[in-house]
Amino acid sequence: MEPSTALRLQPAGAFRLHNNAPAPFDDRRVRMRIQHLAFPNLQSIRPPTRIHPLLVCCATKQSSAAETLQNHKDEAIILKKKSEDVLSHLDDRCIYLVGLMGSGKTTVAKIIGEVLGYAVFDSDKLAEQTAGMPSVAEIFHVHGEAFFRDIESQVLKDLSTMKRLVVATGGGAVVRPVNWRYMKEGISIWLDVPLEALARRIAAVGTASRPLLDQESGDPYTKAFAKLSALIEQRYDAYANADIRLSLEDMAAKKGHEDVTTLTPKNIAIEALDEIQRLIA
Fold first, then answer.
1. How far apart are CA 103 and CA 190, in angstroms?
2. What are the C-alpha distances in Å from 51 to residues 28, 36, 264?
3. Distance between CA atoms of residues 10 and 235, nearest Å
4. CA nearest 173: which of 90, 113, 230, 231?
5. Does the residue 95 lie in any domain?
6. Of 250, 237, 229, 269, nearest to 112 (Cα)?
7. How far is CA 252 from CA 10, 246, 267, in A?
8. SS3 of 245, please?
9. Does residue 1 belong to any structural domain of this protein?
10. Which domain holds residue 67?
11. What are the pLDDT digits (tens) for 155-177?
């Protein structure tokens, strides 16, 4: 099965609920759906990685493009070496990325999955497909947060029985202790991003897809920062259960930068592989 086919998740009819009426939660149907969507012989997501240098007249731009291309090549070489080192000790264990909304879990998961040859899943997307609804925001609106959390827990439970997966979890997946029992079957990594950077990122793309933010009033940055501040206060101890904490602020400081936006997703993936190696070697 081709990766693009294997990971093209189709809506499940079992949870297509009508008339805005909540239905009894049926974990057997969820389990069957997840087992259908996520099975061990899936291949990892492999997004295009070829880089084409820009043809420009300005010598300065040519130099900048060449430098960027070289940086990408260097990152690719480092990622390949790190992945080989990690694979020799990983024993097919799954990797779970946790962190606040907007912290880049899905992007980093795809990079790690690609270099390790692991399948990559976004638990929010699996929950949407299991519920037969187009977004987490709609699940919240129609059925409430508790219904979504039940599906999310079942998704994590079923993924925990599998191997060779990288799972990007939803921001609130850490709040239920039972979810940690499932994630402890693998290795968990907390992407700890400064709130200011997260708020700017979320404000730039909008809050419509963020059910915990979209009902707040005020300008996007202010309401994002206020909500994120409240969430990290509530969830800090839960995130701290992760096997590995990646502080992007510390990573940027090591490179002599104050702004975490100078870090690329590949920088973060390399650091994650380094920390996994330290944990399991």
1. 9
2. 45, 35, 15
3. 32
4. 231
5. yes
6. 269
7. 39, 11, 10
8. strand
9. no
10. 60-280
11. 999 999 999 999 999 999 999 99
Are 125 and 57 contacting, i.e. CB atoms less than 8 angstroms apart? no
Residue 209 lies inside a defined structural domain of this protein: yes
Residue 194 carries which DSSP code? Answer: -
- Judged by DSSP in three states, 25 sits in coil
Least confident stretch, 41-50, 125-134, 138-147: 41-50
Are 164 and 40 spatial neighbours (Cβ–Cβ below 8 Å)?
yes
Cα–Cα distances (Å) from 72 to 22, 51, 53, 234, in that order, read: 49, 8, 11, 38
**Element at 226 (helix H, strand E):** helix 220-239
187-238 pLDDT, tens digit each: 999 999 999 999 999 988 875 556 666 566 678 899 899 999 999 999 999 9
CA 271 to the chain's CA centroid: 15
Distance CA 195, CA 178 (A): 27
Q: What is the pTM of this model?
A: 0.78
Output phi, psi for 226, to 5 deg. Answer: -65, -45
| 131 in a structural domain | yes
Query: Which amino acid is it at 125?
Result: K
Instruction: Give the CATH number for residue 209.
Output: 3.40.50.300
